[in-house]
Amino acid sequence: MTRILLVEDDKWIIKSLTEFLKEEGFELFTACGQKEALDRLKEREYDLALLDVSLQDGNGFSVCSAIKKEMDLPVIFLTASDDEYSVVTGLDLGADDYISKPFRPRELVSRIRSVLRRTGKKRSVICMGALRIDPEKGSVLKNGREISLSALEYRLLLLFAGNQGMILSRSRILEEIWDVSGEFVNDNTLTVYIKRLREKVEDDPQNPEMIKTVRGLGYRIGE
């Protein structure tokens, strides 16, 4: 799953982008300031960074400069619509693209995917048992044949595929997916959705091999 670092201090933007980008199959990490962003960059590898110019401490230019100096990581700047200086400065520092605020989330996703393709960071196909999940196309193949999933089933599958070999608690799953379908998902309906997903992806839904129940803990994904 593609990892994105969002460096932004607007809580509303952080919340809305976190929800939307997760629905699109991205794994999002956030930082509110320059120091926190630099710390995040040391913790793990990312596939792309989204940088706001104005931060709680420092600015996005410094973060971009550090990124381009130390690593091969594409950068998209989030800029004010009338701030030509920020656009030019960001591109001069090596930014790969920019998008002006306010922006439409789907336009941002299109820009992200374009930059990932252009920089060779395009998301690879995820394999999980007999399944091939292509986040770029939003498609799922089982033994070479495409299967149809609802938005929430697809979100569940992406969550499972991104955590293979791990145990996911029911509370963790609910936190990740409860609002993706535009309706409330409680513990009982989660059971229904997992049952439906198993019926579509497992060879024997009564004896699942991919999405296994771990009594009292949640679900273990794969081996």
What is the CATH first-level class name of the largest domain? Answer: Alpha Beta
Q: Strand fraction band?
A: 15-25%
CATH homolog superfamily of the largest domain: Response regulator
Oligomer: single chain
Q: What report would you give on this structure?
A:
The model has no long low-confidence stretch (mean pLDDT 86). The strands form three sheets. The chain has a five-stranded parallel sheet, sandwiched between helices. It has a four-stranded antiparallel sheet with strand order 6-7-8-9, with helices on one face. The radius of gyration is 19 Å and the shape is elongated. The protein has two domains: 3-118, Response regulator (Rossmann fold), CATH 3.40.50.2300; 126-221, Winged helix-like DNA-binding domain superfamily/Winged helix DNA-binding domain (Arc Repressor Mutant, subunit A, Orthogonal Bundle). The protein is built from eight helices and twelve strands. By secondary structure, it is an alpha/beta fold. The two termini are 18 Å apart. It comes from Brotonthovivens ammoniilytica. The modification 4-aspartylphosphate is found at residue 52.
